[in-house]
């Protein structure tokens, strides 16, 4: 006689929205208009982007400038 395998979670059997991750993912997928990022997260990302832009600007300013089309100087091929 074989034993029945125990189910680890009831997430598949639940119909109402609980705090479980699977239920929340399903709810979020079904209601995209009600889902927004937290204020803390958006502020953190905004700060990260500012810092990234500042670093990029600093890198660009310290790099040597190379002229793509340098002005042709007087030739001395004679």
UniProtKB/TrEMBL annotation:
Provide ranges: composition bias, Basic and acidic residues.
Answer: 68-78
Q: Where is this region: Disordered?
A: 1-78
Name under which the protein is recorded: Uncharacterized protein
Query: Compositional bias of type Basic residues: which residue ranges?
Result: 18-28, 46-58
């Amino acid at each position: 006689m074989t034993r029945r395998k125990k189910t680890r979670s009831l997430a598949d059997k639940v119909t109402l929205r609980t705090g479980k991750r699977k239920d929340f993912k399903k709810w979020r997928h079904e209601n995209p208009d009600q889902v927004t990022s937290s204020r803390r997260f958006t502020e953190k990302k905004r700060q990260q982007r500012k810092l990234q832009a500042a670093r990029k600007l600093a890198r660009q300013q310290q790099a040597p400038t190379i002229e793509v089309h340098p002005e042709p100087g007087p030739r001395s091929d004679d």
